Amino acid sequence: MQVYDVIIIGAGPAGLSAAIYAGRARLKTLLIEKGKDGGQIILTSEIENYPGSLEKESGRSLIKRMTEQAASFGVERAADTIVEVDFSNDVKVIKGKKGEYQGRSIIIASGAYPRPIGCANEKEFMGKGLSYCATCDAAFFEDMEVFVIGGGNSAVEEAIFLSTFARKVTIIQNLAELTADAIAIEQVKANEKIHYVYNSVVESLEGDGIVEAITIRNTETNETTRFDADEEDGLIGIFSFIGYLPQSKIFENIVEMERGYIKTDEKMATNVPGVYAAGDVRVKNVRQVVTASGDGCTAAVAIEKYLHH
Q1: What residue numbers bound the domain in which 96 lies?
Q2: Coil, helix or strand for 110?
Q3: pTM of the model
């Protein structure tokens, strides 16, 4: 059986960047992806904050170029879903639904995904008014009305950020109060642009191709309220910040984790020799395309040195 120098699990920005660097280093590299390349970024219709991105760059166009670049350096591909791993020996074993793979080192770049709101039509409007990243998409809603789902630190901090663009921000919280830190709550309460709807959840999103209306249900009275986009805007921004779910379950009890995220050092190394993690699946503060790409680069360079030693 072929033993690869490095096997990369996941073809998002972290995995593709790692593949590019590993391929350029002439490492025998296998990149495994269960679905489409790109991960969360392919849901983004326009990217303005990735260095060097083209005008009107979309998530799909950026990932397409990354994929082509990785292929140009001889990176091999496998379309498979990983179901089991064995990292106990020098040669690591990865078992997928379609086959078994062996590598001297591993980069876990399986990513994370936003916790779903759970409302009707959620999938239909991803990237079409519904966003899980204020840093990515706030500028598209300048002088419009937006709704923020959640009441924790992330939701409150992003609501404050969104208020620098939107004319009105409404936080929808399923509890009777915000659950963010006291300082964050003080800051958000001092912001006149930000309003609140408590004890409420989102029932549905509606519109013709883009979000034009949101229906909210009060969890105490079951009363529903519909908010329609201003006629001049034609669009409502919905930003959900109710947490992320790392795709790390098959690595439980194998590598060290924190709340489901894989712990690494600054070289992206886990506690298991030869096993690295990059991108949104690892413990980190900022989850952006540029930071995921940096993680992938760091992991691949570290592995090149690890293999040589």
Answers
A1: 3-114+244-308
A2: coil
A3: 0.75
Say how many domains are in the chain: 2
Q: Is 297 a catalytic residue?
A: no
Percent of the chain with pLDDT over 90: 80
Domain end position, chosen among 193, 211, 240: 240
Give the active site residue among 37, 133, 280, 295.
Answer: 133
Tell me the C-alpha distance between 121 and 88, whole Å: 44
Q: Residue for token digits 């620098």?
A: 164
pLDDT at 166: 96
Q: Any bridge partners for residue 147, and if so which?
A: 170, 238
84 Cβ neighbours under 8 A, 6+ residues apart = 94, 95, 250
Segment 233-282, tens digit of pLDDT: 999 999 999 988 999 999 999 999 999 999 999 999 999 999 999 999 99
- CATH code at position 94: 3.50.50.60
Residue 136 among the catalytic residues: yes
Segment holding 202, helix H or strand E:
strand 200-206
Q: Which of 240, 272, 297 is the last residue of a domain?
A: 240
Q: Has 208 been annotated as catalytic?
A: no
